[in-house]
């Protein structure tokens, strides 16, 4: 089966690593079991399958994490999939629009879709904003969180918020230096994510930026789906950006709606970062617009039994 590795949240002219996703364009989705097996075998931060619908420019999209389970929403893999489709359909580069329809069983948004607006190399994803963030009030939660992050509890801005539907925790740090220096206990964070009463999908660490040209620094931890630290995350902004606008008591002011976000991956690395993004929040629509770039990295082929893997396309995009 043929996959294509695309790195998302890159930026021409900057030394940005980009978060890789492996994407397959198929005529029919393989079985859930085969898509999960492919994801485990590829061990990419996300493995994504895209199927065209009867309507031009409209596609079904499904994401599988490295543990083989289906993921509700993934910004970086959606941007990667759009970039791959643009290589096959270059006419969309000039102010085109693509619609990516997510698996509706997860109920991430009312329409379960992400609209992509394209302007040359720039891809803007319209994604749900989780405005109804829920504060975490249990003192035992903060003790467990601080132990997993290996930081004093007082370094964490309270309250931490839980984002329903995407199941993420938004954890603001009082100083960017603390966020940058984090060396979490990942086995402990994984246990917290998948067991007990504080289960969640991702831990979105955020702080006001001390890096020139950026408003916010994010680090994202996903040990529950076998990604200890994400290189750069898109869907995390569905909760992080609403936090800064709606919930933060001393953030950027009530009128700010546009943010420049950076992922300093690897933390402390000289001259590189994981990804950069431009974000806009529309509170009334409960929508973020996530703008970034992506580039094609390589072609990958793996073997799956033909009778189980569905019908894949014979001709992929140009490498």
Description:
21% of the residues lie in helices and 34% in strands. The chain has 319 residues and is α+β, with helices and mostly antiparallel strands. The protein has two domains: 2-127 and 295-309, Diaminopimelate Epimerase, Chain A, domain 1; 134-291, Roll (Diaminopimelate Epimerase, Chain A, domain 1), CATH 3.10.310. An eight-stranded mixed barrel has the order 1-2-3-4-6-7-8-17. The protein is globular and about 50 Å long. The two termini are 16 Å apart. Mean pLDDT is 93; it is low at 307-319.
The major beta sheet can be summarized as:
8 strands, mixed, barrel
Query: So what's the oligomer here?
Result: single chain
N-to-C series of helices and strands = EEHEEEHEEEEHEEHHEEEHEEEH
Mean pLDDT: 93
The helix/strand class is alpha+beta
Low-pLDDT sequence parts? 307-319
For the CA atoms, what is the radius of gyration?
Answer: 19 Å
Number of helices: 7
Summed up, the domain count is 2
Q: Helicity level, as a percent range?
A: 10-25%
What is the CATH superfamily classification of the largest domain? Diaminopimelate Epimerase, Chain A, domain 1
Overall outline: globular
State the separation between the terminal residues, measured CA to CA: 16 Å
What percentage of the residues does DSSP assign to strands (E)?
Answer: 25-35%
